[in-house]
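quick one if you have a minute, typing this from the bus. below you get a single protein, a line of residues and a line of whole numbers that encode the local backbone shape. could you go over both lines and see whether the tokens make sense for that sequence. anything you notice is useful, everything is just below.
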Amino acid sequence: MNDIKSMLRSRTVWAAVIGFAAVLADAIGFNPGFEQGEAVDAVMKLVEALSFLSAIVFRVKATARIA
């Protein structure tokens, strides 16, 4: 891992940012205008889980350090 890249080019960072945004939206009660509250909650939880899992996978597969 001798290569260096910026944080903005890191898939790990972007996956973590998306996960954090989903958690934050869920915490503040984001409502996209649908009446199916349980479905929206389930989708938000799925986005959270997949983004944090992606961050782990991307970090393991990484070939460059973040500068």
